[in-house]
Design goal:
The protein is an alpha/beta fold and 152 residues long. The chain has a single domain, classed as Nucleotidyltransferase, domain 5, CATH 3.30.420. The protein contains three helices and five strands. Strands 3-2-1-4-5 form a five-stranded mixed beta sheet, with helices on both faces. It is globular. Keywords: Membrane, Transmembrane, Transmembrane helix. Pfam families: rve (PF00665). InterPro entries: Integrase_cat-core, RNaseH-like_sf, RNaseH_sf, Transpos_IS3, Transposase_IS3/IS150/IS904. GO terms for molecular function: nucleic acid binding.
Length: 152
Amino acid sequence: MGLAGVLRGKKVRTTVSRKAVAACDRVNRQFVAERPDQLWVADFTWVSTWQGFVYVAFIIDVFAGYIVGWQVSSSMETTFVLDALEQALWARRPSGTIHHSDKGSQYVSLAYTQRLKEAGLLASTGSTGDSYDNAMAESINGLYKAEVIHRK
């Protein structure tokens, strides 16, 4: 038949991850706030377009479920979620706000965590791989896709 196997090369490691120490979980799945800017949740999602994927980041004030910052990007670099954070900071100028996210590399990056600290926000992260630990942000992502992207 003339068939022959092919040997694959070794996997090449292209990224050296920084073992970031993530913030503790200050929310513990209790997505309630008694006043505006007491608790923000953050996450991003992807959207398929005719030319590929784009990513949409949201920062939501839990008190009213209001989106206080958002950004769209063609890449998942940290600057993309930082831009959403900057928009929220400019719009609300909070102090002592808990900022809750998942443990995505963008949210535990040095640049992002330093900016949270500079702004006086208290970082909080849920456990790895558990969407319930950031359920409110995941819910907003789902609503965005259902009501805006896939609406018929």
